[in-house]
């Protein structure tokens, strides 16, 4: 499967810059992958496609305010610092991306906030843009973390081309976000409101949660034509026993298991037994799913409409069938569906 097969012309005005007014009132395209039939609905209508003892699996990761703006010592040049992950709690070490990277060398100090509230020292180069920073802060850890996060802003993807607004802190997060560690939101989960969850629960739908701390690799360009040569960035995942029991029981009883988003799909497919059942796991995954691929755990998937050439779109094509999904994307453009993080959703049955 070649990269160029996932190119299509997306009008810029269809990239959603803001979320729908109500979470569960985005548009929903329903694809029946066996027949190719397509329906146009509203997201909260999703309840009609699920029954008692079906299982929806959500990613309960929580996004933290990962984008900071600081100034370089001496020159005062503005530097954007994107926090990727905490490396060492005691030493205040963080893995970050810096922009512009060419100006930042080992030994440089960066200053953040009014009156230089936080100071960081560059101690290592990890990649062309990546650096390791040590934050110089003497107070207790909780106080340091609070200060760091007060300086950060919601890390909207760059293709949402506008300033961050107060509502983003809440809306660029699912309602079931619990475990902090993501620098990008699991977007399919953002369509679920508390009211919709309650209605699904009353109908008898069961919920399971897994964790995948979404990294920036989701937005990294694929720069090889031969997809077998693309390497995904590793992301931390946790699948606990409760989730395993719920999913495997549903599979044994021939109930539906729905992966809510590409991050959930990648998590579930990263820990499968030889019998095609889910296994508990805590560790890292760099699984890259593109057509053709045989799925083992979920038989349904909810996902957004993704940008051209993205690994997220490739996974949707692997699950729904390449021709089916490409046809749906053309319909979505024609019908002016909204694309990207804050865009509309697709249910693949």
UniProtKB/TrEMBL annotation:
Subunit structure: Monomer.
Gene: queA
Broad class of the protein's primary localization: cytoplasm
Organism: Ancylomarina longa
Gene3D superfamilies for this protein: QueA-like
GO cellular component, one term: cytoplasm
Protein's name in the database: S-adenosylmethionine:tRNA ribosyltransferase-isomerase
Transmembrane segments: none
Role this protein plays: Transfers and isomerizes the ribose moiety from AdoMet to the 7-aminomethyl group of 7-deazaguanine (preQ1-tRNA) to give epoxyqueuosine (oQ-tRNA).
């Amino acid at each position: 499967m070649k990269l160029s097969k996932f190119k299509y012309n997306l009008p810029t005005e269809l990239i959603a810059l803001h979320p729908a007014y109500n979470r569960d009132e985005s548009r929903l395209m329903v694809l029946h992958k066996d027949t190719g039939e397509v329906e146009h609905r509203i997201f909260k209508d999703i309840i009609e496609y699920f029954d008692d003892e079906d299982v929806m699996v959500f990613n309960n990761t929580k996004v933290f305010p990962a984008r900071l703006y600081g100034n370089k010592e001496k020159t005062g040049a503005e530097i954007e610092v994107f926090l990727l992950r905490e490396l060492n709690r005691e030493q205040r070490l963080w893995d970050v991306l810096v922009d512009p990277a060419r100006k930042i060398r080992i030994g440089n100090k960066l200053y953040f906030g009014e009156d230089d509230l936080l100071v960081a020292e560059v101690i290592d180069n990890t990649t062309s843009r990546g650096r390791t920073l040590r934050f110089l802060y003497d107070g207790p850890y909780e106080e340091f973390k609070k200060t760091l996060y007060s300086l950060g802003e919601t890390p909207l993807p760059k293709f949402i081309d506008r300033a961050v607004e107060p509502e983003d802190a809440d809306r660029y997060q699912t309602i079931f976000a619990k475990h902090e560690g993501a620098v990008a939101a699991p977007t399919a989960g953002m369509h679920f409101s508390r009211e919709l969850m309650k209605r699904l629960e009353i109908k008898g739908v069961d919920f399971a949660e897994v964790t995948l701390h979404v990294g920036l690799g989701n937005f990294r360009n694929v720069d090889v034509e031969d997809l077998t040569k693309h390497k995904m960035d590793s992301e931390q995942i946790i699948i606990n026993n409760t989730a395993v029991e719920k999913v495997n029981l549903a599979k044994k009883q021939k109930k539906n298991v729905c992966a809510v988003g590409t991050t959930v799909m990648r998590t579930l497919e990263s820990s499968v037994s030889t019998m095609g059942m889910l296994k508990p796991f805590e560790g890292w995954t760099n699984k890259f799913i593109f057509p053709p691929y045989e799925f083992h755990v979920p038989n349904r998937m909810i996902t957004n409409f993704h940008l051209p050439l993205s690994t997220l779109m490739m996974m949707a094509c692997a699950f729904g069938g390449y021709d089916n999904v490409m046809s749906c994307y053309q319909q979505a453009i024609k019908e002016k569906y909204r694309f990207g993080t804050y865009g509309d959703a697709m249910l693949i049955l």
